Q: What sequence folds into this?
């Protein structure tokens, strides 16, 4: 009886269960998830982020216009990025992925940078340097941040990447279950919304060394802007552009100040040193300085007698030195003398360095001037820029990748020596005094050739060949060397002494 009653009760329960509506079966998992509750949250991890630039120049807006971030993290592998914080690592970053996040109205973008940039392949660095200007040129309301990678942030990225990848191929039930059980990360910034700075102070520093002599002495102006620039201001170190230029400026000021201390080495030139601010914003500091000295004052070294303006820009790398000019200097001017001395010093003392003069006219239709010397050229002051970069469009000039490790101290020292040597020859009028011995400094290759030729001539004289053959040798050498008359004179002295 009990067994039969038990069977009847069980059958009744099964019958009633089979009569439950289908909607109950669909709602039951959600109810169970609510009853179970979410998994306990891990401890919050705080890390520093650096916001992309936001500024206006000439009425044109650049960068991101938003700073507030409070949204769930995803990686670019996720199908849906709308209102999500998209995390990207530098080694996997591409402009197409960045545009994808913006097109899908992402809530924010966080780009993770490695702590050791030396470990990043050069092709990755070069690619990102080329992307930086395009990112700034594309104005967006999506907050864009940069963060330096650490162990915790890398763990967050890997977990978010795994979750983003699994959602693309999973079924609806798997997505629902994964949402309830997987780790999720909410990205929140503590800063307030950005506000425009209406009046930004630009500071420039000026120093001078007064020449020995009368009041109307020519002035040589040496300039370098000290700003750095990149897609994120607080990550922009500007080691080469233009920390190297400022380093050369300070070293030149130190050396010439010592020379000007003694009367015997006190030259007849005024030296004006200028470290300008606002260089990366179309040289606004230089523009204001010129206006103050040329338009708003009655007495200024820039108004009296400017021999030339030498701008220093990006001199910490490479085996090239380029003299950028807006107008080629005319012969007989001090500008041309400096050009010749610079070329002479490079050729004789540093033959491994490639030197060239790059002529580019000023394009006033462009939003940005190419080089700092163009600010002076617009005011009709003779000027040029020395740089190891051949083009002003090189992405190194405006990149957060321009770090200290990219500057070679030996090359920076060498370039300082070249510029100092050329300036010294011009300022102290040493050109003619060293011309007759300049061929002794041609370097190892030409020195050996000269010695061999002199030995051959002496042997010819000793074995008794007549002076007609020797005269033929001298004429041939004069055609080959052209203006290198010092060698020909030495050889003629040897021949004349033995033929008389």
A:
């Amino acid at each position: 009886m009990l067994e039969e009653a038990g069977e009847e009760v069980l059958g009744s329960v099964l019958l009633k269960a089979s009569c439950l509506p289908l909607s109950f079966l669909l709602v039951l998992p959600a109810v169970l998830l609510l009853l179970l509750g979410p998994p306990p949250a891990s401890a919050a991890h705080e890390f520093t982020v650096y916001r992309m630039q936001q500024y206006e120049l000439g009425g044109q807006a650049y960068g991101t216009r938003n700073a507030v971030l409070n949204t769930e993290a995803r990686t670019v592998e996720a199908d849906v990025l709308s209102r999500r914080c998209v995390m990207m690592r530098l080694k996997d970053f591409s402009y197409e992925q960045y545009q994808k996040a913006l097109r899908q109205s992402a809530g924010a973008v966080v780009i993770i940078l490695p702590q050791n940039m030396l470990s990043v392949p050069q092709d990755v660095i070069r690619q990102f340097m080329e992307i930086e200007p395009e990112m700034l040129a594309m104005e967006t309301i999506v907050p864009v941040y940069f963060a330096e990678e650490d162990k915790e942030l890398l763990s967050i990225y890997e977990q978010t990447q795994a979750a983003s990848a699994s959602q693309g191929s999973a079924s609806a039930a798997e997505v629902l279950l994964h949402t309830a059980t997987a780790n999720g990360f909410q990205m929140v910034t503590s800063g307030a919304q950005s506000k425009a700075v209406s009046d930004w102070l630009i500071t420039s520093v000026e120093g001078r060394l007064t020449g020995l002599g009368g009041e109307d002495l020519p002035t040589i102006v040496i300039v370098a802007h000290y700003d750095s620039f990149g897609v994120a201001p607080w990550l922009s170190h500007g080691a080469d552009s233009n920390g190297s230029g400022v380093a050369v400026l300070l070293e030149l000021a130190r050396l010439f100040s010592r020379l000007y201390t003694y009367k015997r080495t006190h030259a007849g030139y005024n030296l004006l040193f200028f470290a300008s601010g606002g260089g990366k914003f179309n040289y606004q500091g230089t523009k204001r300085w010129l206006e103050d000295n040329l338009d708003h004052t009655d007495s200024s070294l820039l108004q009296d007698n400017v021999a030339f303006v030498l701008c220093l820009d990006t001199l910490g790398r490479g085996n090239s030195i380029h003299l950028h000019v807006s107008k080629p200097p005319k012969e007989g001017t001090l500008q041309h003398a400096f050009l010749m001395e610079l070329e002479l010093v490079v050729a004789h003392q540093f033959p491994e360095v490639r030197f060239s003069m790059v002529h580019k006219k000023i394009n006033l239709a462009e939003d940005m001037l190419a080089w700092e010397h163009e600010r002076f050229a617009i005011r009709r002051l003779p000027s040029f820029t020395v740089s190891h970069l051949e083009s002003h469009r090189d992405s190194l000039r405006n990149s957060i990748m321009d770090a200290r490790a990219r500057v070679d101290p030996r090359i920076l020292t060498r370039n300082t020596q070249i510029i100092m040597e050329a300036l010294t020859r011009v300022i102290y009028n040493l050109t003619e005094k060293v011309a007759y011995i300049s061929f002794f400094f041609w370097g190892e290759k030409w020195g050996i050739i000269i010695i061999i030729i002199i030995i051959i001539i002496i042997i010819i004289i000793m074995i008794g060949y007549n002076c007609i053959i020797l005269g033929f040798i001298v004429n041939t050498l004069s055609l080959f060397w052209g203006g290198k008359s010092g060698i020909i004179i030495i050889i003629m002295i040897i021949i004349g002494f033995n033929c008389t």
The first strand starts at residue 49 and ends at 51. The radius of gyration is 36 Å. The chain has 16 helices and 15 strands.
